[in-house]
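Weekly structure sync, notes
Attendees: PL (lead), two postdocs, one rotation student
Agenda item 3: pending single-chain targets
PL asked that the sequence for the first pending target be pasted directly into the notes so everyone works from the same version. It is reproduced below exactly as submitted, 345 residues in total.
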Amino acid sequence: MSKLQFIVLISLVSLLTVNGQVTNSFPDNGNVGIGTISPSSKLTVKGHVNIGDDGNYKLRVRHVDGKNHTDSNLGSLFLNYNTGKNVLVGWGPTAASDLFVAGRLGIGTTSPSHHIDVINEHQPTEAFLRFRVKDAISDYLTITNTTGSSGQFIPLIKGNHVTDTRYSLVLMGQTDESNDNGGHALLAFDARRPSGPIQTRPLFVWTSYTTKMMTMLANGNLGIGTTNPGSWKLAVKGKIRAEEIKVETGWADYVFKEDYDLPTLEEVEKHIKEKGHLINIPSAKDVEENGILLGEMNKLLLEKIEELTLYSIEQKKEIEMFRDIMELLKLEMNELKEKFKTTKE
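Predicted structure, written out during the meeting:
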């Protein structure tokens, strides 16, 4: 045996044995065992594996099966378990790798109940998700916990847009031209209990920071500029501008019916002296305290106009009657003048 062959033999023996016991093996089937004498695959390692040491080396594989570290059965693949570092997939200046997950994905949980199930443990912000584009890194869509308190979670969906003055968040419902029919809206906002509609608390509120601008109650009553629309379907604290307003209410044609009790002008005069306003018309104090009902007030104003019309008709009749009387008196005066003239001659 040559010196070189002896050195190789000694090296091989030291490779295969530790303290005289066989720990590594090279069976005839082509498998290699490190830390085991019965490798079940091309390379079977019993123990820890360090690839790269302190150098920038890499491991390239076709497929990786995992095993729970506390279980003898193959189960889970642990990457950087416990105190591990970041796991980067397809990282680098020309990264183009895709990550495919067949089944459920759990982040912060080992028992996901949805396709993507996230439990956030990063205090205090509890930020769950953020989407950005590389050429506008300051614009983003994020989902976070808006409570700022432990033991509570209210999801906040926020669109942050700072690159110009356009919208910060857009919600869109879209369909095909053939479906542009029927009575169903494309976009719905739903506020409910699991067992039915909301009964007492408001359905939604529109705010600017902490100022409530618009509130809709459970019964559908809407307040703009007020959080308490009361019994009104629409309550507005402020001015309203519109091109047309249609009010469906009663009308005052009852004034023209024969059984209508038209006040005399003397009664109207007396009421004005005593009350300071027309009959059936609210006083200035009442209007200041309670406002007016637009439809009701239009009806009452029409009532006064129709009463004035009746007064005018009655006055016209009286004027015509006095005109006729004056004509008769004029004729009688002329006749008396003629008789007096004849008698004098």
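Discussion points:
- Residues 3-14 have pLDDT under 50 and may be disordered.
- The helical segments are 3-16, 265-275, 284-290, 294-344.
Action: rotation student to compare against the earlier draft before next sync.
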